[in-house]
Specification:
heterodimer; A: mainly alpha; Rossmann fold; two-stranded parallel ribbon; elongated; B: alpha+beta
């Protein structure tokens, strides 16, 4: 980590003086300022950044991973240098600055409450009002001669470019979706190719979501395990290994819904996530009962619960994708919730009957 | 490209109001729009995720779309609180 980089961490929100703590001032004099008075961000990530980034992927400190909003610089930008606008989620800033090696640009970091660009735009925190406010707060008019700011394309759900222009005089250019494409975009005179504008959701994008999906599945898994352990305790009068064996198929269903369904997403049948997940759950149940045969009632109970779990977890993955619509989610949730509750309920009933009859 | 239920269901473009600025083409993450003779057209409704970026950036208000977060978890949480199904807000980062 270089001495000139401002490596704010999660404490940034509670320590507004994060940057000045390493001897840098965030103050920008109105006119004729040298760029050196604006804190510089390094374009190399240190081990702390990597560790923190790894952590938030696992849900550790995911909601408070922020840097102080304001103006930063990359390299030695002058009065004609481009101004890039971004969110103050540290994972976002890190993803951006690591792509800006060798560039001289200004970085205007908005206060998006430690949320990434697309989600913050959806919530409205990466919005017209915050862009306008931040332009004025850092005195951007006096810092650069041009009247142009570059926003990430995915912030467009929260920002009205024509309103920013009307209120500040700054023309909004929407840059590429991915930070990776910014050097090419800058070199291409601020023209994004159609490729740069398209959002992809390939296997790499889905794999990085796996840890947080797993963490999300931990709570229902624990709940199911507790129920099984209690039933086992009542059944045997003492805790037995049978509880773990009994939990195994449900754990398999949770992992199938949380990991396998996202990975297999493009190949799942049906546009509905709940139906696709149910199909996957049915395949899992069939394989499971083929490997570990059970009698009719116990087998039916197990299969029904496995289908319900897999379907439900797959349905909740809608929020992590880049293509689901509110209309569609409303439609399938309306049908899926009653259907899954009755399927799961019937399954639990069968399983209990199988134990006690 | 994976497609979803009711994709682009609520998206409406009034071509008569279009001023040909091309912002909708620029901001759409799924190439739903294209320009033809300086007028925007919907060319791929089936990939629309109703994010609302086009409506937000249309200075002529030629676009309407019922946008919101397509997240079942947020919707279920809201329904559980008795909040109905109107525009759930996502609670995760």
């Amino acid at each position: 980590m270089s001495d000139h980089s401002c490596e704010c961490d999660s404490t940034a929100r509670t320590q507004p003086a994060c940057c000045s703590s390493i001897g840098l001032t965030r103050k920008v004099a109105p006119t004729g300022t040298g760029p050196t008075e604006v804190p510089e961000l390094s374009t190399r990530l240190g081990w702390k950044d990597r560790l923190g980034g790894w952590g938030v992927r696992w849900g550790i400190n995911r909601m408070g991973y922020a840097i102080e909003p304001g103006l930063y610089r990359i390299g030695q930008p002058d009065r004609r240098a481009p101004v890039l606008v971004t969110a103050n989620y540290k994972l976002t800033v890190d993803a951006l600055r690591r792509e800006l090696g060798g560039q001289d640009v200004w970085l205007l970091v908005l206060d998006t409450k430690a949320v990434n660009v697309w989600c913050a735009a959806g919530k409205g925190t990466f919005g017209t009002a915050e862009v306008v406010r931040r332009i004025q707060a850092v005195g951007l008019h006096d810092l650069v001669d041009h009247r142009r700011i570059i926003l990430p394309q995915l912030s467009a759900t929260g920002v009205a470019a024509h309103e920013v222009k009307r209120l500040t005089g700054f023309e909004v250019r929407y840059g590429p979706v991915l930070a990776r494409d910014i050097p090419a975009y800058l070199a291409n005179r601020l023209k994004a190719t159609p490729e740069m504008r398209r959002v992809r959701f390939g296997w790499k994008e889905r794999v990085v979501l796996a840890p947080v999906e797993l963490v999300g599945a931990a709570k229902p898994a624990l709940a199911i395990f507790t129920i099984i352990a209690v039933v086992d305790l009542i059944d045997h009068g003492r805790p037995t290994l049978g509880a773990l064996r009994g939990f195994a198929p449900y754990l398999a269903a949770i992992l199938t819904g949380g990991l396998l369904a996202p990975l297999l997403l493009p190949w799942l049948p049906f546009r509905s996530f709940a139906l696709g997940g149910a199909a996957l759950g049915a395949v899992l149940a069939a394989v499971w009962l083929w490997l570990f045969p059970a009698d009719l009632l116990a087998g039916a109970g197990l299969a029904l619960v496995m289908v319900a779990i897999t379907s439900f977890i797959t349905l909740t993955f809608t929020g992590s994708t880049t293509f689901t619509t509110l209309s569609g989610v409303k439609l399938e949730t309306r049908y899926a919730i009653p259907a899954l509750l009755s399927t799961g309920g019937a399954g639990v009933l069968c399983s209990l009957l199988a134990i006690w009859i | 490209m994976t497609r979803y239920l009711l994709a682009g269901h609520s998206l409406v473009l009034d071509e008569a109001l279009c001023n040909g600025c091309g912002r909708c083409v620029e901001v759409c993450p799924h190439e739903v729009f294209a320009m033809h003779d300086h007028v925007a057209r919907i060319v791929s409704r089936d990939t629309c995720m109703e994010c609302g970026a086009c409506r937000m950036n249309c200075s002529e208000e030629a676009i309407t779309v019922d946008s919101g977060v397509g997240c079942a978890a947020a919707l279920i949480a809201q329904m559980a609180r008795g909040g109905g199904t109107d525009s759930p807000s996502c609670s995760c980062g």
